[in-house]
Write a structure and sequence with these properties.
elongated; three-stranded antiparallel beta sheet
């Protein structure tokens, strides 16, 4: 029944997988970086509106595609998730280092640079330049060298992406995955990167965001090792100022491209490269012998470099000695590798020249499922110390058998990777399995260290396996170090999970997925997390480990919630509860119930949400798990507030606050204070609300959290306005607006503009109020915020009524009430009815006005919302006074004065007392 209700909500919002995609996009735009969007306090409207369900419109999607790259997501109002995402620092200089092995390609370079210069000088759009050629010919080296030469012409950044089009053991990078990496590198917080189940829609949305990100910029993008035009097309910028260089073994031809084929080096250039890298004088080598050497390796730069390195490392060898060894190597290869014998013979010669322990190390590199590695990974693969691994890597780099990458990392050229894998395949197949086991074990140990820095204090951290005690892990001294390491190794770890799963190493799959879960919750992209946890759940099914299966399903449910795929989240979390019950895992069941409660809160299924949080709370109390208790209480408090059960909300939130303070959890403390402030404001306790908001603001200031500071300022401003301090309200909202504008946080900015519109209306400038409120309304509609839209419409109705736009005012009230009733926001509904009643009263329709005030009074008393009760009483009294003459309605007016006095709303109280006098 619950699942059907969740599906119905999704269908009403827009229907089917497309709706899930749209909701996911909009949720990302205003997504929190915490594990408890049950709080979502930053999505709350001001004190009179309670945000329940985030609606999605096509306008919202359009806004995301057009401007989401301008947006930074707010930190949550609720408790932070168990883990945290990496910062959004821009990394727009990612070209690999230029190589000393580059030799003269003057004609190709001149053509490329000339083409770019001509396009820029003529103002024409820069065409894509496709560099194709056979393996080992130097396509990547040429593109990187050209990139360095042209970098000054593209000051907005230079990016390099390896698409793995022909990398042995790796599937080509999907366009969607590459776009996620590019967006993150360009500074887009990963929570904002679109996700969803429709792969095509996700790719289109990410491509649109990528084009928006590069609009008007001059950047250089190298797409290396492309498999097909279809793979790279979504990655192409839309603007005319960006240069794209593509390398591929295939001829990728389209109308707008400049195709440049890179052939083997001319013999003279190949000889020049050999002489330079050999470190010997040309006349000491013998031109005829060198000519034959470069011919035997096909004049390919990779082969020439390897041969020259062999000679440099063997001072006693002559060029003739090297030639003899190369010929023998070619003969050993026979016909099995005839198609690549020219360059493979140089590999064989270089490999056989290595010491046995270095040969072993090189073979182990062929087992690595990832792409690039550091000495710690090398040490795990080969069962050596990190010091020894570093020495091997440096020696192999010196021998031109591996390439050096930024950050003291290394990678094998695709041909050398294939060669190493071939060598490894000739040995014991168990060697492969054991190497993968070792590297996975290393990653588990390193993840335990990283999670120790990033996972929230008091939260459960997946422990490292017992056999990791002897594993050398990287030195991670801070949260920033850990996040940087996690981001660097993310793709490699996921590749290890896939390889381990293919080798039926299911226990390792489950453990790695659990260890990566805290990071992927925040860092995303969430579609990667979905795939990981599905794999882990299936692996746990193979092993019969119900607890592990429950963990994987629970994580899947959390990520599905982040994606706003609520029916799928409910299904996964219900399955997790069942799995935990099968093994009597009460802690796991409590966590899953807590997450279920959050999902039901977000889908406005309040009774189910309250039941789930109550059951989770009972389990946490049985277990003595204090953080879990605080989380469940906080989410229960949010649910009670949403149901207008304000006393119960205060009770739950106050207990949560006490536990957060006991645990020293400053974020939890601040967020509970803020939510208490919202509830107390709804209850009319403005002094207490202001103190809570100020305390929360001070903690956010201490935590250097500018987004939350701005939200607290807006809440303070609302309280100041309601208590008559208009200038203080204006100052608070203006400061919040400045913060949100600087941070690019569009939802918070819309809130600030709306609040300032109300301030202008209260101070008598209805025209300016309408301008501001219409701007806020447009922003909310673009973001898909139904609660924000309703709040703006209610205020617009008041302002339009003031300037005499009666029909426009009624239309705004009608539309706003429709939304509020759909959201179940009874306090907001009472406020809108009171505003509408006042419009009718001033339009000489006191009888109709009294009906509206009567409805508002019933609602306000039912939910104990004193301000709206006072407004309704005042309206009823004024209607009676108007209809029946002076002196009638006095009881209602005096009752309103009593409530206003208790609330400290002196302006409204003074107006009534003047009337009574």
């Amino acid at each position: 029944m619950r699942l059907r209700r969740g599906i119905a909500i999704a269908v009403v919002a827009g229907g089917g997988a497309v709706t899930t995609m749209l909701v996911g996009l909009v949720t990302n735009a205003v997504s929190d970086e915490s594990r408890w969007p049950g709080w979502l306090g930053w999505l709350q409207e001001h004190a009179w509106f309670s945000f329940v369900v985030l609606g999605v419109t096509m306008a919202g999607l359009t806004a995301l595609l057009a401007g989401l790259s301008e947006t930074r997501p707010p930190t949550p109002s609720g408790r932070p998730e168990d883990g945290a995402g990496p910062g959004a620092a821009q990394v727009l200089r990612s070209l690999p280092r230029d190589t000393a092995a580059f030799t003269d390609r003057a004609a190709e370079l001149e053509r490329l640079v000339g083409s770019v210069r001509a396009s820029q000088e003529s103002g024409e759009g820069l065409p894509v330049h496709v560099i194709d050629g056979m393996p080992g010919v130097g396509k990547t080296t040429f593109a990187v060298h050209a990139g360095h030469l042209l970098s000054e012409r593209f000051p907005d950044g230079q990016l390099f992406v390896n698409l793995n089009g022909h990398t042995p053991g790796r599937t080509p990078v999907q366009a969607s995955e590459a776009l996620a990496s590019l967006l993150a590198a360009a500074g887009v917080p990963t929570q904002q990167i679109p996700v969803g189940d429709d792969a095509g829609a996700v790719t289109e949305a990410r491509a649109a965001m990528w084009r928006s990100r590069l609009a008007g910029k001059k950047a250089l993008l190298i797409l290396d090792n492309a498999a097909s035009y279809r793979q790279l097309e979504p990655l192409l910028p839309g603007g005319s100022g960006c240069l794209v260089l593509v390398t591929s073994r295939k001829r990728l031809v389209a109308n707008e491209e400049v195709v440049m084929s890179v052939d083997a080096l001319p013999p003279d250039h190949a000889v020049e490269l050999f002489v330079r890298l050999s470190g010997r004088p040309a006349d000491a080598l013998g031109r005829d012998v060198v000519d034959e050497l470069v011919r035997l390796c096909g004049c390919l730069p990779l082969g020439v470099s390897l041969l020259a390195a062999r000679l440099r490392h063997h001072p006693s060898w002559s060029a003739e000695d090297l030639r003899g060894r190369l010929v023998a190597a070619r003969d050993r290869l026979g016909e099995l590798r005839a198609g690549e014998r020219a360059v493979t013979a140089t590999f064989d010669l270089s490999y056989r020249d290595l010491a046995p322990e270095r040969q072993h190390f090189f073979r182990q590199l062929g087992f690595f499922p990832g792409t690039d590695l550091d000495p710690h990974v090398g040490a795990a693969l080969a069962e050596v110390s990190v010091v020894v691994a570093r020495r091997h890597l440096e020696a192999l780099y010196d021998d031109h058998l591996i390439d050096e990458q930024p950050g003291s990392r290394y990678r094998l050229h695709d041909l050398l990777r294939d060669y190493a894998r071939g060598l490894a395949a000739d040995g014991d197949s168990m060697d492969h399995v054991q190497a993968v086991q070792r590297v996975c074990t290393y990653y588990l140990a390193a993840l335990a260290v990283a999670n120790g820095h990033t996972v929230r204090s008091g939260a459960a951290v997946p422990p490292a396996p017992d056999d990791t005690s002897r594993v050398e892990t990287p030195v991670l001294e801070s949260r920033a170090d850990a996040l940087s390491w996690l981001e660097t190794e993310r793709a490699n770890i996921l590749a290890c999970v896939r390889r381990a799963n293919g080798l039926a190493l299911y226990d390792l799959v489950v453990q790695l997925a659990a260890a990566m879960a805290p990071f992927l919750r925040q860092a995303g992209p969430w579609d990667q997390a979905v795939a990981l946890h599905r794999t882990a759940a299936e692996a746990a099914r193979h092993t019969g480990d119900q607890r592990a299966r429950g963990d994987a399903l629970a994580e899947l449910g959390v990520v599905r919630r982040f994606m706003a795929a609520y029916p799928q989240a409910i299904e996964a979390l219900n399955d997790a509860v069942t799995a935990y019950e099968a093994v009597d895992d009460r802690r796991g069941k409590a966590e899953a119930l807590n997450q279920l409660g959050i999902v039901w809160y977000l889908t406005a299924d309040n009774e189910d949400a309250a039941r789930a949080q109550t059951e989770a709370l009972a389990l946490y109390r049985e277990l003595g798990y204090r953080l879990g208790q605080a989380n469940a209480l906080a989410d229960l408090g949010m649910t009670h507030r949403q149901m207008s059960r304000f006393d119960a909300a205060v009770e739950a939130q106050t207990e949560a606050l006490a536990i957060y303070r006991e645990l020293g959890d400053r974020y939890g403390e601040a967020n509970s204070l803020r939510d208490l402030g919202v509830v107390h404001s709804l209850m009319g306790a403005y002094g207490l609300a202001a103190r809570h908001h100020q305390e929360a603001f001070d903690i956010y200031l201490e935590l250097d959290d500018r987004v939350h500071q701005a939200y607290a300022l807006n809440e303070l401003g609302v309280v100041r306005r309601l208590t008559g301090d208009i200038e203080a309200a204006r100052t608070a909202h203006s400061q919040a607006l400045t913060h949100f504008t600087e941070l690019g946080e569009r939802f918070g900015r819309a809130n600030s503009i709306r609040h300032l519109g109300v301030v202008e209306r209260v101070t008598g400038d209805a025209t300016e109020a309408i301008r501001l409120l219409e701007e806020a309304l447009g922003a909310y509609r673009e973001l898909g915020s139904r609660g924000g839209e309703a709040a703006s419409l209610s205020e617009l109705g008041v302002a339009r009524g003031i300037v005499g736009e009666r029909d426009g005012a009624i239309e705004a009230f009608q539309h706003g009430l429709e939304i509020l009733r759909g959201l179940g926001d009874r306090c907001g509904e009472a406020e809108a009815l009171n505003h509408w009643g006042m419009l009718l009263l001033t339009s000489d329709e006191p009888t109709a006005a009294r009906r509206h005030f009567g409805q508002a009074l019933t609602l306000a008393r039912d939910i104990s919302c004193p301000l709206e009760e006072a407004r309704a009483l005042e309206g009823i009294g004024r209607c009676d006074w108007t209809v029946d003459g002076p002196g009638h309605g006095v009881d209602s007016l005096r009752a309103a004065v009593t409530v206003y006095r208790r609330l400290g709303v002196s302006a409204s109280m003074d107006d009534i007392e003047r009337l009574l006098v």
